[in-house]
Design goal:
alpha/beta, six-stranded parallel beta sheet, 14 helices, about 40% helix, binds ligand SAJ
Protein backbone atom coordinates (compact mmCIF):
# COMPACT_ATOMS: atom_id res chain seq x y z
CA UNK A 1 0.00 0.00 0.00
CA UNK A 2 1.14 3.54 -0.74
CA UNK A 3 0.31 6.41 1.58
CA UNK A 4 0.28 9.73 -0.30
CA UNK A 5 0.67 12.62 2.14
CA UNK A 6 -0.79 15.95 0.99
CA UNK A 7 -3.75 15.91 -1.39
CA UNK A 8 -3.27 19.24 -3.17
CA UNK A 9 -2.53 20.07 -6.79
CA UNK A 10 0.14 17.37 -7.13
CA UNK A 11 -0.61 14.80 -4.41
CA UNK A 12 -4.22 14.26 -5.41
CA UNK A 13 -3.68 13.52 -9.13
CA UNK A 14 -0.66 11.35 -8.26
CA UNK A 15 -2.66 9.33 -5.73
CA UNK A 16 -5.55 8.95 -8.19
CA UNK A 17 -3.25 7.92 -11.01
CA UNK A 18 -1.58 5.20 -8.93
CA UNK A 19 -4.91 3.91 -7.63
CA UNK A 20 -6.41 3.76 -11.10
CA UNK A 21 -3.41 1.66 -12.18
CA UNK A 22 -4.02 -1.02 -9.62
CA UNK A 23 -1.90 0.28 -6.72
CA UNK A 24 -3.52 0.21 -3.28
CA UNK A 25 -3.51 3.87 -2.18
CA UNK A 26 -4.57 5.82 0.88
CA UNK A 27 -4.41 9.60 0.50
CA UNK A 28 -3.79 11.51 3.72
CA UNK A 29 -4.30 15.20 4.37
CA UNK A 30 -4.51 17.07 7.67
CA UNK A 31 -7.32 19.23 6.24
CA UNK A 32 -10.51 17.48 7.45
CA UNK A 33 -12.78 19.46 5.15
CA UNK A 34 -10.73 18.49 2.10
CA UNK A 35 -10.77 14.81 3.10
CA UNK A 36 -14.54 14.97 3.67
CA UNK A 37 -15.05 16.54 0.23
CA UNK A 38 -13.06 13.75 -1.42
CA UNK A 39 -14.87 11.09 0.61
CA UNK A 40 -18.12 12.68 -0.50
CA UNK A 41 -17.16 11.95 -4.11
CA UNK A 42 -16.04 15.45 -5.18
CA UNK A 43 -12.67 16.73 -6.39
CA UNK A 44 -11.25 19.88 -4.81
CA UNK A 45 -10.00 21.81 -7.86
CA UNK A 46 -10.65 21.97 -11.58
CA UNK A 47 -8.26 20.23 -13.93
CA UNK A 48 -8.65 18.59 -17.34
CA UNK A 49 -9.56 14.93 -16.93
CA UNK A 50 -9.31 15.02 -13.12
CA UNK A 51 -12.95 14.09 -12.43
CA UNK A 52 -12.76 11.06 -14.74
CA UNK A 53 -9.52 9.95 -13.10
CA UNK A 54 -11.12 10.45 -9.67
CA UNK A 55 -14.05 8.20 -10.56
CA UNK A 56 -11.70 5.53 -11.86
CA UNK A 57 -9.64 5.70 -8.65
CA UNK A 58 -12.78 5.46 -6.51
CA UNK A 59 -13.80 2.33 -8.39
CA UNK A 60 -10.32 0.92 -7.77
CA UNK A 61 -10.78 1.47 -4.05
CA UNK A 62 -8.71 4.58 -3.17
CA UNK A 63 -9.26 5.74 0.42
CA UNK A 64 -8.87 9.20 1.97
CA UNK A 65 -7.96 9.87 5.57
CA UNK A 66 -6.58 12.45 7.97
CA UNK A 67 -4.43 9.70 9.54
CA UNK A 68 -0.97 8.58 8.50
CA UNK A 69 -0.98 4.89 7.53
CA UNK A 70 1.30 2.03 8.53
CA UNK A 71 2.99 0.99 5.31
CA UNK A 72 6.41 0.65 3.70
CA UNK A 73 6.11 3.45 1.10
CA UNK A 74 5.10 7.09 1.58
CA UNK A 75 4.89 9.86 -1.00
CA UNK A 76 5.08 13.35 0.47
CA UNK A 77 3.57 16.09 -1.62
CA UNK A 78 3.10 19.06 0.68
CA UNK A 79 3.68 22.77 -0.04
CA UNK A 80 7.17 24.27 0.09
CA UNK A 81 6.67 28.00 0.61
CA UNK A 82 9.60 30.36 0.23
CA UNK A 83 10.62 33.29 2.34
CA UNK A 84 10.07 36.44 0.27
CA UNK A 85 12.99 38.24 1.94
CA UNK A 86 15.70 35.58 2.14
CA UNK A 87 14.44 33.88 -1.08
CA UNK A 88 15.12 30.55 0.59
CA UNK A 89 12.82 27.55 0.67
CA UNK A 90 10.92 26.91 3.87
CA UNK A 91 10.84 23.13 4.32
CA UNK A 92 8.66 23.18 7.47
CA UNK A 93 5.74 21.25 5.95
CA UNK A 94 8.01 18.58 4.44
CA UNK A 95 9.75 18.13 7.79
CA UNK A 96 6.57 17.97 9.80
CA UNK A 97 5.08 15.43 7.34
CA UNK A 98 8.20 13.27 7.60
CA UNK A 99 8.17 13.48 11.41
CA UNK A 100 4.56 12.28 11.39
CA UNK A 101 5.48 9.44 9.02
CA UNK A 102 8.28 8.38 11.38
CA UNK A 103 5.77 7.91 14.19
CA UNK A 104 3.93 5.17 12.31
CA UNK A 105 6.35 3.83 9.69
CA UNK A 106 7.78 0.33 10.15
CA UNK A 107 11.57 -0.17 10.05
CA UNK A 108 12.96 0.05 6.52
CA UNK A 109 10.08 2.10 5.07
CA UNK A 110 10.77 4.55 2.21
CA UNK A 111 9.71 8.19 2.16
CA UNK A 112 9.58 9.78 -1.29
CA UNK A 113 9.50 13.59 -1.25
CA UNK A 114 7.79 14.94 -4.37
CA UNK A 115 7.53 18.55 -3.22
CA UNK A 116 9.92 20.91 -5.01
CA UNK A 117 12.84 21.86 -2.75
CA UNK A 118 16.02 23.84 -3.31
CA UNK A 119 19.20 21.87 -3.99
CA UNK A 120 20.61 20.60 -0.68
CA UNK A 121 17.33 20.79 1.28
CA UNK A 122 17.24 17.06 1.95
CA UNK A 123 20.84 17.20 3.20
CA UNK A 124 20.58 20.43 5.22
CA UNK A 125 17.12 20.10 6.75
CA UNK A 126 15.45 16.75 6.20
CA UNK A 127 18.31 14.40 7.15
CA UNK A 128 19.13 16.23 10.41
CA UNK A 129 15.45 16.25 11.37
CA UNK A 130 15.22 12.48 10.85
CA UNK A 131 18.49 11.85 12.70
CA UNK A 132 17.52 14.11 15.60
CA UNK A 133 14.37 12.03 15.96
CA UNK A 134 16.68 9.04 16.57
CA UNK A 135 16.39 7.23 13.22
CA UNK A 136 19.23 5.90 11.08
CA UNK A 137 18.79 6.81 7.42
CA UNK A 138 19.28 3.78 5.17
CA UNK A 139 18.38 1.39 8.00
CA UNK A 140 15.29 2.64 9.81
CA UNK A 141 14.07 4.81 6.98
CA UNK A 142 15.05 5.48 3.34
CA UNK A 143 14.83 8.95 1.84
CA UNK A 144 14.10 9.57 -1.83
CA UNK A 145 13.40 12.73 -3.81
CA UNK A 146 11.21 12.34 -6.91
CA UNK A 147 10.21 15.85 -8.01
CA UNK A 148 6.93 16.20 -9.87
CA UNK A 149 7.00 17.80 -13.33
CA UNK A 150 3.37 18.04 -14.43
CA UNK A 151 1.91 21.24 -15.77
CA UNK A 152 -1.42 22.53 -14.42
CA UNK A 153 -3.99 22.38 -17.20
CA UNK A 154 -2.51 19.15 -18.64
CA UNK A 155 -1.66 17.25 -15.47
CA UNK A 156 -3.36 13.97 -16.20
CA UNK A 157 -1.74 13.60 -19.62
CA UNK A 158 1.67 14.65 -18.30
CA UNK A 159 1.52 12.30 -15.32
CA UNK A 160 1.21 9.46 -17.81
CA UNK A 161 3.69 10.66 -20.41
CA UNK A 162 6.42 12.86 -18.85
CA UNK A 163 9.87 11.51 -18.13
CA UNK A 164 10.68 11.46 -14.42
CA UNK A 165 13.71 11.80 -12.12
CA UNK A 166 14.24 9.81 -8.95
CA UNK A 167 17.03 10.75 -6.53
CA UNK A 168 18.04 8.16 -3.95
CA UNK A 169 21.08 7.43 -1.73
CA UNK A 170 20.79 3.77 -2.50
CA UNK A 171 20.42 2.55 -6.09
CA UNK A 172 18.27 -0.45 -5.08
CA UNK A 173 15.81 1.81 -3.26
CA UNK A 174 15.77 4.14 -6.29
CA UNK A 175 14.92 1.17 -8.53
CA UNK A 176 12.12 0.09 -6.18
CA UNK A 177 10.57 3.56 -6.34
CA UNK A 178 11.07 3.58 -10.12
CA UNK A 179 9.02 0.38 -10.31
CA UNK A 180 6.19 2.08 -8.44
CA UNK A 181 6.12 5.08 -10.80
CA UNK A 182 6.44 2.74 -13.81
CA UNK A 183 3.03 1.30 -12.81
CA UNK A 184 1.52 4.30 -14.64
CA UNK A 185 4.32 6.44 -16.13
CA UNK A 186 5.05 5.73 -19.79
CA UNK A 187 8.03 8.10 -19.94
CA UNK A 188 11.68 7.33 -19.14
CA UNK A 189 12.52 7.28 -15.44
CA UNK A 190 16.08 8.27 -14.53
CA UNK A 191 17.54 7.18 -11.19
CA UNK A 192 20.20 9.53 -9.79
CA UNK A 193 21.31 10.94 -6.44
CA UNK A 194 19.14 13.18 -4.28
CA UNK A 195 20.97 16.51 -4.78
CA UNK A 196 21.02 16.07 -8.57
CA UNK A 197 17.29 15.36 -8.54
CA UNK A 198 16.68 18.49 -6.42
CA UNK A 199 18.78 20.61 -8.75
CA UNK A 200 17.23 19.33 -12.01
CA UNK A 201 13.74 20.29 -10.92
CA UNK A 202 14.70 23.83 -9.94
CA UNK A 203 16.82 24.24 -13.09
CA UNK A 204 13.94 23.16 -15.35
CA UNK A 205 11.65 25.82 -13.93
CA UNK A 206 14.46 28.39 -13.94
CA UNK A 207 15.10 27.75 -17.63
CA UNK A 208 11.46 28.54 -18.34
CA UNK A 209 11.46 31.63 -16.10
CA UNK A 210 14.58 33.04 -17.80
CA UNK A 211 13.10 32.35 -21.25
CA UNK A 212 9.84 34.13 -20.34
CA UNK A 213 11.84 37.04 -18.87
CA UNK A 214 13.70 37.28 -22.18
CA UNK A 215 10.37 37.43 -24.02
CA UNK A 216 9.07 40.08 -21.59
CA UNK A 217 12.24 42.14 -22.07
CA UNK A 218 11.90 41.86 -25.84
CA UNK A 219 8.30 43.08 -25.49
CA UNK A 220 9.56 46.20 -23.69
CA UNK A 221 12.25 46.84 -26.31
CA UNK A 222 9.72 46.40 -29.11
CA UNK A 223 7.15 48.64 -27.37
CA UNK A 224 9.81 51.33 -27.09
CA UNK A 225 10.28 51.45 -30.86
CA UNK A 226 6.81 50.29 -31.93
CA UNK A 227 7.84 46.89 -33.29
CA UNK A 228 5.67 43.76 -33.24
CA UNK A 229 7.26 41.45 -30.65
CA UNK A 230 5.00 38.52 -31.56
CA UNK A 231 5.93 38.66 -35.23
CA UNK A 232 9.60 38.92 -34.30
CA UNK A 233 9.43 35.93 -31.92
CA UNK A 234 7.46 33.93 -34.50
CA UNK A 235 10.12 34.49 -37.17
CA UNK A 236 13.04 33.88 -34.79
CA UNK A 237 11.44 30.61 -33.66
CA UNK A 238 11.51 29.42 -37.28
CA UNK A 239 15.28 29.13 -36.80
CA UNK A 240 15.96 25.48 -35.90
CA UNK A 241 17.83 26.35 -32.69
CA UNK A 242 15.72 29.22 -31.32
CA UNK A 243 12.67 28.69 -29.10
CA UNK A 244 11.57 31.89 -27.36
CA UNK A 245 8.47 31.76 -25.16
CA UNK A 246 5.73 34.41 -25.14
CA UNK A 247 5.60 37.72 -23.30
CA UNK A 248 2.66 38.14 -20.94
CA UNK A 249 1.31 40.22 -18.05
CA UNK A 250 3.71 38.56 -15.61
CA UNK A 251 4.60 35.13 -14.29
CA UNK A 252 2.33 33.52 -11.73
CA UNK A 253 1.71 30.12 -10.22
CA UNK A 254 3.62 28.45 -7.46
CA UNK A 255 6.49 27.13 -9.58
CA UNK A 256 8.07 29.34 -12.24
CA UNK A 257 7.57 32.46 -10.13
CA UNK A 258 9.03 30.83 -7.01
CA UNK A 259 11.58 28.06 -7.66
CA UNK A 260 14.25 30.18 -9.44
CA UNK A 261 14.43 32.39 -6.33
CA UNK A 262 15.80 29.35 -4.45
CA UNK A 263 18.96 29.58 -6.58
CA UNK A 264 19.21 33.34 -6.05
CA UNK A 265 18.71 32.85 -2.31
CA UNK A 266 21.36 30.13 -2.06
CA UNK A 267 23.89 31.53 -4.58
CA UNK A 268 23.38 35.32 -4.49
CA UNK A 269 26.75 36.18 -6.00
CA UNK A 270 26.52 33.55 -8.75
CA UNK A 271 22.90 33.51 -9.92
CA UNK A 272 23.01 36.90 -11.72
CA UNK A 273 21.05 36.16 -14.90
CA UNK A 274 18.43 34.37 -12.84
CA UNK A 275 18.13 37.29 -10.40
CA UNK A 276 17.65 39.84 -13.21
CA UNK A 277 15.17 37.57 -14.99
CA UNK A 278 13.05 37.17 -11.89
CA UNK A 279 13.07 40.93 -11.34
CA UNK A 280 11.97 41.45 -14.95
CA UNK A 281 9.09 38.97 -14.58
CA UNK A 282 8.07 40.41 -11.21
CA UNK A 283 7.89 43.93 -12.63
CA UNK A 284 5.85 42.89 -15.67
CA UNK A 285 2.45 43.52 -13.97
CA UNK A 286 3.54 47.14 -13.38
CA UNK A 287 4.65 47.41 -17.01
CA UNK A 288 1.16 46.25 -18.02
CA UNK A 289 -0.46 48.71 -15.60
CA UNK A 290 1.46 51.59 -17.17
CA UNK A 291 0.29 50.38 -20.55
CA UNK A 292 -3.33 50.45 -19.25
CA UNK A 293 -2.86 54.08 -18.19
CA UNK A 294 -1.33 54.93 -21.59
CA UNK A 295 -4.28 53.34 -23.43
CA UNK A 296 -6.77 55.16 -21.19
CA UNK A 297 -5.05 58.46 -21.98
CA UNK A 298 -4.95 57.78 -25.71
CA UNK A 299 -8.70 57.07 -25.67
CA UNK A 300 -9.67 59.87 -23.26
CA UNK A 301 -10.95 57.33 -20.76
CA UNK A 302 -11.09 58.82 -17.29
CA UNK A 303 -13.69 56.64 -15.58
CA UNK A 304 -11.78 53.74 -14.00
CA UNK A 305 -15.05 51.92 -13.31
CA UNK A 306 -15.45 51.47 -17.09
CA UNK A 307 -12.27 49.38 -17.24
CA UNK A 308 -12.57 45.60 -17.05
CA UNK A 309 -9.84 43.12 -16.19
CA UNK A 310 -10.56 39.72 -17.72
CA UNK A 311 -8.95 36.84 -15.81
CA UNK A 312 -7.86 36.40 -12.21
CA UNK A 313 -6.03 33.09 -12.36
CA UNK A 314 -2.30 32.81 -13.02
CA UNK A 315 -2.85 31.30 -16.46
CA UNK A 316 -5.49 29.96 -18.82
CA UNK A 317 -8.08 27.30 -18.00
CA UNK A 318 -7.02 26.67 -14.39
CA UNK A 319 -8.68 27.89 -11.18
CA UNK A 320 -5.42 28.64 -9.36
CA UNK A 321 -4.79 32.28 -8.39
CA UNK A 322 -1.44 31.86 -6.64
CA UNK A 323 0.95 34.72 -7.54
CA UNK A 324 -1.53 35.83 -10.21
CA UNK A 325 -0.37 38.86 -12.26
CA UNK A 326 -3.94 40.24 -12.13
CA UNK A 327 -3.86 40.33 -8.33
CA UNK A 328 -0.52 42.14 -8.52
CA UNK A 329 -1.97 44.70 -10.95
CA UNK A 330 -4.93 45.26 -8.62
CA UNK A 331 -2.56 45.71 -5.68
CA UNK A 332 -0.55 48.33 -7.59
CA UNK A 333 -3.75 50.08 -8.68
CA UNK A 334 -4.86 50.21 -5.07
CA UNK A 335 -1.60 51.96 -4.18
CA UNK A 336 -2.10 54.52 -6.95
CA UNK A 337 -5.85 55.01 -6.77
CA UNK A 338 -6.70 53.97 -3.20
CA UNK A 339 -10.03 52.47 -4.26
CA UNK A 340 -9.77 50.82 -7.65
CA UNK A 341 -13.22 50.78 -9.19
CA UNK A 342 -12.03 48.65 -12.03
CA UNK A 343 -14.31 45.67 -12.83
CA UNK A 344 -12.90 42.15 -12.68
CA UNK A 345 -14.20 38.85 -14.05
CA UNK A 346 -12.96 35.27 -14.34
CA UNK A 347 -15.15 32.29 -15.28
CA UNK A 348 -13.05 29.98 -13.06
CA UNK A 349 -13.40 32.10 -9.90
CA UNK A 350 -16.94 31.88 -8.62
CA UNK A 351 -16.34 33.14 -5.06
CA UNK A 352 -15.86 36.87 -4.50
CA UNK A 353 -12.15 37.45 -3.97
CA UNK A 354 -11.70 41.06 -5.07
CA UNK A 355 -13.73 44.26 -5.15
CA UNK A 356 -16.14 44.81 -8.06
CA UNK A 357 -15.92 41.20 -9.16
CA UNK A 358 -18.52 40.12 -11.69
CA UNK A 359 -19.81 36.64 -12.41
CA UNK A 360 -21.25 36.80 -15.88
CA UNK A 361 -19.30 37.52 -19.06
CA UNK A 362 -22.09 39.45 -20.81
CA UNK A 363 -22.78 41.67 -17.80
CA UNK A 364 -19.05 42.26 -17.35
CA UNK A 365 -18.61 43.29 -21.00
CA UNK A 366 -21.67 45.55 -20.89
CA UNK A 367 -20.31 47.41 -17.88
CA UNK A 368 -16.93 48.37 -19.38
CA UNK A 369 -15.40 50.31 -22.31
CA UNK A 370 -11.83 48.99 -22.07
CA UNK A 371 -11.33 45.21 -21.72
CA UNK A 372 -7.89 44.09 -20.58
CA UNK A 373 -7.38 40.40 -21.37
CA UNK A 374 -4.97 39.12 -18.73
CA UNK A 375 -5.71 35.41 -19.06
CA UNK A 376 -6.47 33.58 -22.30
CA UNK A 377 -9.18 31.24 -20.98
CA UNK A 378 -10.99 29.26 -23.71
CA UNK A 379 -14.16 31.14 -22.76
CA UNK A 380 -12.84 34.48 -24.05
CA UNK A 381 -11.38 32.91 -27.19
CA UNK A 382 -14.79 31.35 -27.95
CA UNK A 383 -16.55 34.70 -27.33
CA UNK A 384 -14.14 37.04 -29.09
CA UNK A 385 -16.99 38.42 -31.25
CA UNK A 386 -18.61 39.86 -28.14
CA UNK A 387 -15.61 42.20 -27.78
CA UNK A 388 -16.40 44.10 -30.98
CA UNK A 389 -16.90 47.79 -30.31
CA UNK A 390 -14.81 47.70 -27.13
CA UNK A 391 -11.32 49.07 -26.67
CA UNK A 392 -9.27 45.92 -26.17
CA UNK A 393 -5.87 45.50 -24.55
CA UNK A 394 -4.86 41.90 -25.13
CA UNK A 395 -1.80 40.91 -23.07
CA UNK A 396 -2.00 37.28 -24.23
CA UNK A 397 -2.43 37.65 -28.00
CA UNK A 398 -5.64 35.65 -28.12
CA UNK A 399 -7.67 38.29 -29.95
CA UNK A 400 -7.11 39.38 -33.55
CA UNK A 401 -9.73 42.13 -33.84
CA UNK A 402 -8.23 45.12 -35.76
CA UNK A 403 -7.07 47.95 -33.50
CA UNK A 404 -6.44 45.71 -30.50
CA UNK A 405 -3.72 47.00 -28.18
CA UNK A 406 -0.86 44.67 -27.32
CA UNK A 407 1.77 44.50 -24.62
N1 LIG B 1 3.91 32.25 -19.13
C1 LIG B 1 4.26 33.32 -19.94
N2 LIG B 1 4.74 33.07 -21.20
C2 LIG B 1 4.88 31.81 -21.67
C3 LIG B 1 4.54 30.71 -20.84
C4 LIG B 1 4.06 30.97 -19.56
O1 LIG B 1 4.15 34.49 -19.55
O2 LIG B 1 5.30 31.66 -22.83
C5 LIG B 1 3.41 32.49 -17.76
C6 LIG B 1 2.04 31.84 -17.49
O3 LIG B 1 1.00 32.65 -17.94
C7 LIG B 1 2.06 31.69 -15.97
C8 LIG B 1 3.53 31.41 -15.68
O4 LIG B 1 4.25 31.83 -16.83
O5 LIG B 1 1.69 32.89 -15.33
C9 LIG B 1 3.84 29.96 -15.39
O6 LIG B 1 3.05 29.09 -16.21
P1 LIG B 1 3.62 27.84 -17.01
O7 LIG B 1 2.51 27.28 -17.79
O8 LIG B 1 4.86 28.19 -17.71
O9 LIG B 1 4.11 26.85 -15.86
P2 LIG B 1 3.45 26.28 -14.51
O10 LIG B 1 3.97 27.10 -13.37
O11 LIG B 1 1.98 26.11 -14.63
O12 LIG B 1 4.13 24.80 -14.47
C10 LIG B 1 5.56 24.70 -14.44
C11 LIG B 1 6.00 23.64 -15.45
N3 LIG B 1 7.47 23.70 -15.64
C12 LIG B 1 8.04 23.72 -16.85
O13 LIG B 1 7.41 23.74 -17.88
C13 LIG B 1 9.53 23.74 -16.88
C14 LIG B 1 5.59 22.25 -14.99
O14 LIG B 1 6.12 21.25 -15.83
C15 LIG B 1 6.10 22.02 -13.54
O15 LIG B 1 5.67 20.75 -13.07
C16 LIG B 1 5.48 23.09 -12.67
O16 LIG B 1 5.96 24.35 -13.14
C17 LIG B 1 5.89 22.83 -11.23
O17 LIG B 1 5.08 22.33 -10.45
O18 LIG B 1 7.06 23.05 -10.88
Amino acid sequence: MINVIGLGYIGLPTALMMASHGVEVVGTDYNKELVETLRGGHTTFKENGLDELFNQALKSGIKFSTEYQVTDMYIVSVPTPYDKFSKKVNPCYVISAIKSVLQVAPKGATVVVESTVSPGTMEKYVRPAVEEAGYIIGEDINLVHAPERIIPGNMVYELLHNNRTIGADDRAIGEKVKELYASFCQGDIVVTDIKTAEMTKVVENTFRAVNIAFANELARICRHDDMDVYEIIKICNMHPRVNILQPGPGVGGHCISVDPWFLVGDYPSLAKVIDESMKTNDSQPDFVLNRIYEIMKENNLTDVSRIGLYGLTYKENVDDMRESPTLQILESMEKHLCDPKVKVYDPFITKNVVLNQMHNLDEFLESVDLVVILVGHNEIIENINKLKGKIIFDTRKVCDIPGVYRI
